[in-house]
């Protein structure tokens, strides 16, 4: 099973979803802006990513600056609370597979955790080639 924490308004998230589907898998899609993860689920995702909580915070297009989240006074628990209150602060897409959990920025990072090979050539929305006609990473 593959799960993607997805924002359909984000090109990176759309490209990641397309790469998952190009491997022949229809993932469980979590529209995390509509249905945010619980605090415990978010903690687990971050633990599985093996990164600091701050590495999962998104700055662009969010209330990051308004909330003064760059300030070191905020603990990890505080930052998790902000992400739960404002899910747009959760960087995306996060993909979970049997091979691991990754923050897929850039989108081709997802290839490292997909069990199935790519079935066809793939270009990102901007035209950048990722997978060639033999199904191999460019």
Written overview of the protein:
- With 138 residues, the protein is α+β, with helices and mostly antiparallel strands.
- The chain has one domain: Glutaredoxin (3-Layer(aba) Sandwich), CATH 3.40.30.
- Helices cover 24% and strands 15% of the residues.
- The protein has helices at residues 11-22, 39-49, 76-85, and strands at 3-6, 28-31, 94-97, 100-103, 122-123, 129-131.
- A four-stranded mixed sheet has the order 2-1-3-4, with helices on both faces.
- A hairpin with a 5-residue loop joins strand 5 (122-123) and strand 6.
- The radius of gyration is 16 Å and the shape is elongated.
Task: Sum up the structure in keywords.
two-stranded antiparallel ribbon; single chain; 4-stranded mixed sheet; Glutaredoxin; elongated; alpha+beta; 138 residues
- Sketch the major β-sheet: 4 strands, mixed
Reported by name, the CATH topology is: Glutaredoxin
Query: How much helicity do the residues have?
Result: 10-25%
> At CATH's second level, what is the architecture?
3-Layer(aba) Sandwich
The topology string of helices and strands comes to EHEHHEEEE
Weakly predicted, low-confidence segments: none
Q: Tell me, briefly, the overall form.
A: elongated
Radius of gyration: 16 Å
Layout of helices and strands, plus pairs?
Blueprint lengths: L2 E4 L4 H12 L5 E4 L7 H11 L26 H10 L8 E4 L2 E4 L18 E2 L5 E3 L7
Parallel strand pairs: 1-2
Antiparallel strand pairs: 1-3, 3-4, 5-6
């Amino acid at each position: 099973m593959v799960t993607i924490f997805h924002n359909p308004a984000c090109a990176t998230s759309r490209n990641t979803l397309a790469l998952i589907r190009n491997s022949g898998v229809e993932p469980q899609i979590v529209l995390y802006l509509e249905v945010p993860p619980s605090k415990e689920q978010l903690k687990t995702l971050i633990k599985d990513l093996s990164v600091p909580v701050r590495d999962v915070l998104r700055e662009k297009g969010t209330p990051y600056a308004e909330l003064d989240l760059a300030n070191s006074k905020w603990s990890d628990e505080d930052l998790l609370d902000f992400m739960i209150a404002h899910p747009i602060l959760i960087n995306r897409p996060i993909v979970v597979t049997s091979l691991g959990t990754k923050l897929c920025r850039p989108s081709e990072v997802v290839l490292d955790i997909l069990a199935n090979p790519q079935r066809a050539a793939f270009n990102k929305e901007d035209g950048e080639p990722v997978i060639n006609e033999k199904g191999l990473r460019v």
